[in-house]
Design goal:
Photo_alph_chp2; single chain; mainly alpha
């Protein structure tokens, strides 16, 4: 088997399963959140220990460990935000008629502590991998952070597909920070930069002088960046994104539709829990 096949397939499988698991946990009844958060925090501690232990391991196993552990750290960030434990000083809908910079400021206030937690996580990984041969955990985390931020900014500016079925009921207030538009100025820049980064990472993985450790690490990063770019395209093209994680989404009746125009923020109404 090609030396690129296993790390690429591993990245796809872990990305798909971890995303679905987070969606599943976020849509469980709210009384389960404290247990999910407690479990995620234990996993976070183990992941940080694994990053520290693998930082000096320039082997194929070390690259796999670094990637997996960084993904688990990122999973904690996602769970803590979507379960409402780490959000912002004003986690509520923007006042009616809010436009321009006021809308951006309200959006920032709704998730400021989440952004600070992401920075803290990145600094922790940077410290654990400082001057170490294996920094794939740091690169993994930075790619997840950058692509997530890009996706959120694109949804703020306006995208064709909001994929509202992924949003838990208790976060329906976030609808006012989303727009439904056929295109926005940032999107072409986002996908172009992501494509260039994926190409550069792929070039590093294919380099003749690359060691086995680097082949694994850069193949995983290339695959991860390509998947994140695909997720961006899900926002604009009529692709069945929800079908990929249908097993993790709750069965619902007719949920509230997203009532939008091309220039107005989205409004995601409250829906009854399954």
């Amino acid at each position: 088997m090609s030396p690129y096949a296993v790390p690429a397939l591993y990245a796809v499988a872990v990305w798909w399963f971890s995303t679905g698991l987070i969606i599943l946990l976020d849509h469980l009844p709210r009384h389960t959140f404290r247990w999910s958060m407690a479990g995620a925090s234990l996993v976070l501690a183990a992941a940080l220990l694994a990053i520290g232990a693998s930082a000096g391991d320039a082997s194929e196993a070390g690259a796999f460990t670094a990637f997996t552990a960084a993904l688990l750290v990122w999973g904690w960030q996602e769970i803590s935000y979507y379960m409402g434990f780490v959000s912002g000083p004003a986690p509520r809908a923007c006042p009616p008629g809010t436009r321009g910079f006021d809308r951006f400021r309200a959006a920032a206030a709704a998730s400021l502590w989440h952004e600070a937690a992401i920075v803290a996580g990145g600094l922790a990984i940077l410290a654990l991998t400082w001057d170490a041969p294996n920094r794939f955990a740091l690169w993994t985390y930075l790619i997840l952070w950058g692509m997530n931020l890009s996706a959120r900014l694109n949804m703020f500016l306006g995208v064709r597909n909001l994929n509202a079925e992924f949003l838990p009921d208790h976060l329906s207030y976030l609808g006012c920070y989303l727009r439904k538009r056929p295109m926005n100025p940032l999107f072409p820049i986002s996908v172009s930069l992501a494509t260039v980064i994926a190409a550069l990472l792929g070039r590093a993985a294919l380099a003749e002088e690359a060691a086995a450790f680097e082949v694994v690490g850069f193949t995983i990063l290339t695959t991860l960046t390509a998947l994140a770019t695909l997720e961006h395209w899900f926002l604009m093209l009529p692709l069945p994104a929800a079908a990929l994680w249908s097993w993790s989404l709750p069965a619902r009746g007719k949920g509230a539709a997203i009532a939008v125009t091309t220039s107005e923020p989205a409004e995601i109404g409250h829906r009854d829990a399954a």
